Every structure is written in structure tokens, then in C-alpha cells.
């Protein structure tokens, strides 16, 4: 299995603006030795390590970890998408064999329409021209802007992280459901079945997630879905094994063993080129 979405961080680095004591038990260091046992138990042999800070210093930190950690297959990093020399920075990072994608933290930005800024659109076009994957980190309110950006850059190879974090705790489906269906109409866009447990009630049950997984299964099909743990963020609401079993159980209602292998391994490997 290939986990398409996990994180590492060292709090003392000081560039995780969102990581404060108020967030709870994950406000501490998480490094490869903390994850090794969890992935072994779940049958995961490789992971995609995703940025958690809006600095290139953190991208360098993650690439250094990847160089030293066999199970890290690739790193999705951060580059300032409004930088005048974005293309040069992109070219530099692409020289690293484990740099496999870019993610701005859209969900936390003050401007919900950030992705439509002219400089950002230009950077998206450069990413598309390079054939590099782009991770979309959003809430439902951001999706209309994402759709507008995809219309301007229709050949962008992108993936929606965490099924775009619908309001699972409130059992709210719309307008998330309509927006996801429209985004799935872009054939170069995939979706990560990840990050769901932290959007649910603390006493969540498997059935809370079924309408959401059913919908992305119908919209994206087995060729454009990929499993991600969102570890260690997921530990706020469940164990690594809980997250893996949740995804496997709900997706098994739609797909057979071969298609599940695509979702839990092959699709992410192909998408990220690992």
C-alpha cells in the first residue's frame, strides 16, 4: 500500500503558524520513527510526505527527511506562487528526485479566491506545463474558485485533498456535493479519500462518512481516487489503523480487489510518478 498523504514536523522550527497548543495532542514533534510501526501494522510500505508550513525552508526540511527515509517515496512541497521568479524556483526543486508536487495551503488563506490571482494562475500554468502534480487543500467555500481556476488551466494535474473537507459533523452534503461533481468533470483531477475523521463528530461512526465516500466514488471512479491517512492530524480523532480500515470498508462497497489496489497503491504511484 501507498499512503498518498502524511506529514512530519518539528515544532521548534517555528514556521507552522497553525500548530499551537490549542490544537491539542499533535502540537509536538512527529518524525519517521513515530510512523514506522503504524504503517507496518497497516500494510503500508511507502508514503507521500506533504508540506505543513508555508515556507521553502520546510520543503527543504522534508526533502532532507525523504533522502534519509526509505519509505518516503516523494515530497509535496511549498513554493511561493506569487514570487516573480516562481519558474526558476520550480525548476530548482524539480531537480530533486523526490520533489513530486506543490501545495499552497488554500484553506487557511485570508483570500478565499487566492487561486484566481493573476500571478497564481500564471504559476498554475507553469506547473501544468511541467506536468507536476498540484494538491488542492480546501473547504467547500473554496471550490467555486477552484473550478474557475481549472477552467483557465484545464490541463493541470491536480488532486483534491481530504475530499475538500465537507461538514461531516453536521451531515451537510450541499453545495459540496454539486461542486465535487463539477470538479470531477475535469479528467486530470483526482481525489484523496483522506482527512475525514477530523471533520466528523468526536464520537463518529463509520456510517457518518458513507454518503461522502459514496459520492466521490461515483464521481471519480476507481481510476482517480487514492487513499491517504493524513497522519498525524488524523490522530486527533482516530488511530492510523482506524483511518485505513474506514476507507477500505466504505470503498469495498463500490470496488473489487483489483480496483482497491489501484486506490490504495497504483493511482498515487502513477499520479506522483513514484
TrEMBL record:
Keyword Hydrolase included in the entry's annotation: yes
Which EC main class describes this enzyme?
hydrolase
Its EC number is: 3.1.1.-
Location of the Amidohydrolase-related domain: 3-273
Task: Tell me the GO molecular function terms.
Answer: hydrolase activity
Q: Which UniProt keywords apply?
A: Hydrolase
For whether the record's keyword set contains Hydrolase, the answer is yes
One Pfam family name is Amidohydro_2
Family named by the database record: Belongs to the metallo-dependent hydrolases superfamily.
Name by which UniProt lists this protein: Amidohydrolase
Q: What is the species of this protein?
A: Allorhizobium taibaishanense
Amino acid at each position: 500500500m501507498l499512503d498518498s498523504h502524511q506529514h512530519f514536523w518539528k515544532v521548534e522550527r517555528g514556521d507552522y503558524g497553525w500548530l499551537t497548543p490549542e490544537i491539542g495532542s499533535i502540537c509536538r514533534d512527529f518524525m519517521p520513527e513515530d510512523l514506522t510501526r503504524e504503517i507496518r501494522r497497516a500494510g503500508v510500505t511507502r508514503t507521500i510526505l506533504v508540506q505543513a508550513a508555508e515556507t521553502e525552508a520546510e520543503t527543504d526540511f522534508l526533502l532532507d527527511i525523504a533522502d534519509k527515509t526509505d519509505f518516503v517515496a516523494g515530497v509535496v512541497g511549498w513554493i511561493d506562487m506569487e514570487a516573480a521568479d516562481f519558474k526558476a524556483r520550480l525548476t530548482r526543486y524539480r531537480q530533486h528526485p523526490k520533489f513530486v508536487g506543490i501545495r499552497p495551503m488554500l484553506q487557511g488563506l485570508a483570500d478565499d479566491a487566492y487561486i484566481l490571482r493573476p500571478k497564481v494562475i500564471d504559476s498554475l500554468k507553469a506547473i501544468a506545463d511541467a506536468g507536476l502534480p498540484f494538491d488542492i487543500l480546501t473547504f467547500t467555500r473554496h471550490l467555486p474558485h477552484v473550478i474557475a481556476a481549472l477552467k483557465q488551466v484545464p490541463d493541470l494535474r491536480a488532486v483534491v485533498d481530504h475530499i475538500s473537507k465537507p461538514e461531516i459533523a453536521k451531515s451537510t452534503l450541499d453545495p459540496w456535493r454539486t461542486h465535487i461533481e463539477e470538479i470531477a468533470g475535469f479528467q486530470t483531477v483526482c481525489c484523496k479519500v483522506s482527512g475525514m475523521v477530523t471533520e466528523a463528530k468526536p464520537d463518529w461512526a463509520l456510517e457518518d462518512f458513507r454518503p461522502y465516500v459514496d459520492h466521490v466514488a461515483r464521481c471519480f471512479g476507481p481510476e482517480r481516487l487514492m487513499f491517504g491517512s493524513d497522519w498525524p492530524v488524523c490522530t486527533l480523532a482516530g488511530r492510523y489503523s482506524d483511518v485505513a480500515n474506514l476507507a477500505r470498508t466504505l470503498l469495498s462497497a463500490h470496488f473489487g480487489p483489483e480496483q482497491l489496489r489501484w486506490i490504495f497503491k497504483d493511482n498515487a504511484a502513477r499520479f506522483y510518478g513514484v
